[in-house]
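Hello again,

I reread your note about wanting to compare the complex against the isolated chains. To keep things tidy I'm splitting this into two emails, and this first one only covers the full assembly. Below are the input lines as submitted, including protein chains and any nucleic acid or small-molecule components. They are followed by the predicted structure of everything together. The single-chain runs will come separately.
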Amino acid sequence: MAYLIFGLAVLGHTTLWISVINRLHARPWPESLLRKVRHLHDVCVLLFPILLVIGAGWLGPQLLRGGSWLSLDWLWITVFGVCGSGCVWLAFVVVRHWLERSPRQLTSETSHGIDVAAELGERPISPGPYHVLATIPWNEQFTLEVTRKTFTLPRLPEGLDGMRIWHLSDWHFLGTIERRYYERVVREIQTESADLFCFTGDLIDRMECLDWLDTTFATLDASAGKLFILGNHDWNQRPEEVRERMQTAGWIDVASRVESLTIRGIPIAVGGDETPWMGTEPDFSSVPESTFRLLLSHTPDNLARARRAKIDLMLSGHTHGGQVRLPLIGPVFSPSRSGVRYASGTFWKSPTLLHVSRGLAGQHPLRWNCRPEVTLITLRRG
Ligand SMILES: [Fe+2]
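Full-complex prediction:
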């Protein structure tokens, strides 16, 4: 029993640290500071079991050597109490994960996978940051999932019934995952036409890769336009240069403003939100009540604001689906004020339907039980 309680204490302690880390990574802190916080997290998570076993198991109350739990002093009662609360929190998150159901606005979902590494005969990786992660067996980073989702929305104008949007997010050009991987994904996207392309940020982690736009984003085309915002990783590079190059590639920057588009003769309003890292929230106050409203927001954390602005459809990325999803538990790491709540998927919070993409890549090229994704969305009226 003592070993079981010690195990649960370690589990609860780790849960609390991860919960804090997820929420701190939702803040607009410099990457250098966040890296230090992550290192502190790593040290505490690894050291705690050792300190617990030595401090409470072998020395002090000697709980692993037959000592009595009734003799615990206030320090160890506090430690086990806090760790216990971590276990309760973990149980809540896991139960919520399993009870989560897709909203009825998601009326169909299909997908197919493409093993890009198998097609190329090798994993498309080069020496670069976190290169070792990309070589780990069973890493799903190179198994693309092309997802097709149909959203049935009450306020969609009749003339836009059947409108199609490619939702792309979090491509993270870094160099460790090679350019040919992205070019293969683009070729797959080009097989399906759409009215709109929407990219929801985190294009780049290394400015030298900006030229990759010429054979990827620049070659995509949609009848009503290609819209983009940037994310926190772009913010850590040279965002104004990235914006310029995206615009040169034919993409429209909708950050911190509202763009009026006419699709199939029907006006819609599209805004972009890069907060809390850059700019301001887009102002929809002058948009007529009846106009369909689309929001590109890098983080799903802006959902409450989107609801207040009566956004019909909000597209986000940033959380990568957690990248590693454990059996039973689901996603673990997700940089959001809501933790893993909106790690990926479709969520209805009236009057807004939120779609969070798992994204295509990441600074850390490791995915398990969480394939990289591009999503073709079809909107239906209903
Ligand atoms: Fe990202």
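For quick reference: The longest strand covers residues 143-153.

B.
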